[in-house]
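We close this part of the discussion by returning to an individual protein. Part of our work consisted of pairing the sequence of a single chain with a tokenised description of its backbone. The amino acid sequence and the backbone structure tokens for this protein are reproduced below.
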Amino acid sequence: MIKHKLALALPLSMLALFGCSGSEDLYAPVEAPEIVNSFEPQKLFDVSSGGVDKYFSIISPAFVGNTLYVSSRNGYVKAMDAIEGSTLWSIDLDDEYENSDKRSARLSAALDANQNYVAVGSENGYIYVLDAKDGHVVWKKYLEGEIVSKPAFSGSGDALFVQDTRGRIFCLQSSDGSERWVAAKAMTSLRLRSQSSFIVVGDEYVISGQPGGKVGVYLQSTGALVNEVNISRAAGINDLERIADVSSTPLLLGDDLYATSYNGSLSVFSFNDNTMASTLGYSSSQNMDFDDNYIVITDDKGHVYCIDRQTGAEIWVNSRLTYRKTGAPAIYGNYVVVGDYEGYLYFMSLADGKIESMLACDNSAIYSSPVVHDGRLYVFANDGSIICLSHDPAGLAKAKEGTRKVELMYSGANANLMAPGVGESGVYAPDVMNEAALMARRAAIIKAVEDAQRRQRAAALAQKKAYEKARAEYEAKVKAYEEERRKRLSGFGLMPQEGVKSDAAEDVQPGTDNTQPQQAPAPQADQVEDSKASGFGL
């Protein structure tokens, strides 16, 4: 009798299991959280630039002074007044002859610009360089492979670096497009379509994330690969699981390289002693952001993390946006700002990750990281909407922006980015080069080492002065905020006691010793409280 019951029960239980598995979507996005907004950012303007429509392209504009340069997939490149939102000039590259038999110009939504030129690539294989003053085409060049990543000008602006989907890196003369050198790496059998943007270190090095979990360091003068950092190693039972591309743009902060990989980790590599300083279990294919104390990252599940720069400790995680295709984060004052696939914008407290404000900015997805410029927050939606917001009453966002620019400007200036011994032996020079070319490349590498040593001494002093100035301005803003808050509270008979920190002080923590490990446990995801919004546009 027992055997008969088991024989009947097993098929029924299996049927129940199979019935459940067919209807459950493990990767379905959660519903948008319900938030009561603690503040409403001021909308300064909302204009359109064309966008990327339904294509999954990351919009990456360029600011030069108060001019904003943007591109759209259908061919338009615009220069805009970043303060007013008005168009200064516009050009339609879809009208170019080479695009006449194509669906469109298929421009990348990522471009770079300097005082003289604007550079943008296309999936049709062309790189276009425009005059920054009026937008006319200075030159264009067919590179055969699709260009989906952001091009980059060298520190002086004389050279332009372009990467195609075949893994080739081109160094072109900015003025006429003539080829200086081409470097190529073997590509993996299966890789992500998105690619890392370049990190340009003056006129000496150019750094790029690569497939297979690597970050390459190249000499700008010759294209020699002088260092290759293994961020993560491929692991898994099939090609899909073994994808470990560094498709997000690494961060070079001082002597340390921060990089994330798909299916991999967040790794910190020290060029000072050529060792891996730490490896943390955060997998991401999106760009990170930072301030003096923290690194913020969005993982591939849509969770947002805040990590201590000094200790690597996790300060908090917000998992309220699971599988909502959460975009790359940006630090704006005392907030971490991200968008999602439904066009919502979230302001999370940098102190604990709580969502303080939620805005229905657009009907289109917001995948790109918002950009902070001159104390304002610029949001770029996929349909081309450019929304300029402001919420910086104490000027902290602008002060942080200044210290951030200084740190990025001088990062790598005090470090030798080459692998040990490469200056003497040229270990990464290709075997196919003849002796004369090999000796020329080796001499260039040795000269780069000598130049780096001179540059280190000069840059160290300049970096210290510039950083101290920006830091002083930052601390002055915090002090002014403290004083204003003290006066405001005293009007209600609530005078903060001496030695008690304000909320802003806890967020900013000027002068704190971040080398000490965190004593309090990090808030868990379910501790991040959010409640319903009554006025965010619904």
The first helix runs from residue 2 to 23. The mean pLDDT is 81. DSSP finds five helices and 32 strands in the chain.
